Sequence to fold (427 residues):
Amino acid sequence: MSVKEIVPSEGPYHLRLKTWPSFEFHNPDIDGLVPVCRVESWQAFESLIGEEWGTLGIGDRVYRGHRRYEWQLEDTLTREFDGGAIPPEVSSKLLSRFKLAMRGRGVDLAGITDDENEVWAYGQHFGLATPLLDWTESPFVALFFAFAQEDDELEKQNGSRAVFSLNRGLIDKVIPNLFFEPALGENARLVNQAGLFTVTPTDDENFVSAVINAVIDSGAVDPDKAEDIARYIYKVHIPNTGRADCLSMLRRMNIHHANLFPDPSGASLYCNDWLRREVSDRKRAEIVRKQVASKPPLQPPVEHAPPEAIEGEPTTIEALLNQLIVPDDGIAPSTVSQWAERVAKTYEENSPIDWPVHVSTTKGMRIRMGRLLNALGFPPDRRNDAMDKIVGFYASEYIKKNNLKELVGGPRSGGDFFYAIKKGQAE
Fold:
C-alpha cells in the first residue's frame, strides 16, 4: 500500500510539490504546462540523473538550468511578447535588419550563410533577441547555470533553482526541426558546454505549447497524466541552499566559468568568482579569530576527586557503584552517574519475568553486566566482584518489589549468583 505524500500549503513554493519521481501539473503561472517535481537537495539531483532513464525511459536528453524558480522556458524574443507567440513578420524583419546592420562590422552574414538559424545563433552570441533557447547535453552544466549566479537582494525571495529536462530522442520524432547545432565558428562556448539550441516556432505557439501539443497530437501520451508528459519534458525544483558546496563539487568536475566560456569574458567571470570566494573566506577567518580572541584563556582541567565511600546498604545503583570504586581509581562523580545510567538501562532491557529464579537467566544477567563493565572501563581486578554485587542488588530489588520470599541465596561455586524463591509473604 503506497503512502500518499503530504505537502504543506504554505512556505516556499517548491515544498508544495511532489518529490521525484512523482510529477504533477501544479501552477501554470510558475511552471507553465510542464510537469514538475522537486528534490530535497542539489545532492539529490545527482541521484535523480542516475535514475532518470530507469524511471522515464531511454532517450538522448538535454537540460537547461534557471536561477529563479518561476522563470519559464521563454527565449529572449518570446519575452518581448510576454511569453506569447512570436509574430512571423516581426521575426522576419528583425532578422533582415540584423543582417543589414552587420555590414561593415566584421562578418557579412548575408554572404556566408542562407541558414536563418545560423544567423540567429550568431546574433544571440552578441546579445540579439532571438527565438533560440540554449540547452546542454550535460545535466551538471545545467546545474551550474542554475546555481552560478548569486541572487539579487532586491528581488523577491527565491526558494528554489530549477533544471528542465527535454528528451531529444523522442521529440525529434514529432518535431524534426526543433533542435539546431550551429556550424559557424563564433560558438566555441557551445562546444565546451556540450550545447545546442532549440528554435521556438513562430506565429501561434510558444516553445512549451509547441512541444506538448505535438506530443499529444502524436497519440503517444495521455495529456492528463503528468508522468506521461514527463517522458518528453519536465522541470525539477532544487532547494536554493548549499550553493557554495554545489559549485565546489562542480569545479572538481571541471565545470566552471573558465572552462564553459573559452574567451576573455569567461576568464573574467572565473577570476571574479575566485575573488568573491577569497574575500568570503577571509571574512569568515577574521570572525573566527575575533571570537577566539574574545574568549577567556582555557583553565587547566580540575582534578575530580572520587566520591567518598558510602556506608550502609546502597539504595540506588549509583550508590552501589560509589561503594565499588576506590580513590586510586580516579573516577569522577559525573562518570559514576553516567555508568549508573548505562547499568540501569542494560538491566531494564534484559530482565525477563522471575529472572532471579533460574540459573540460566541469572547467569545471563551476570554476563551482560560483565560485558558492560568491561566496555565502561571498570577496574578489571574488581570486575567479577562488581558483577556479583550488581546482580545481587537487582535480585534483591526484584524480590522486594514483587513481594517474594528468599529461601536460599548467596554466591555459588563458579561465580554464579542464584536465588531459589517462591511466591509468598515475606516473614
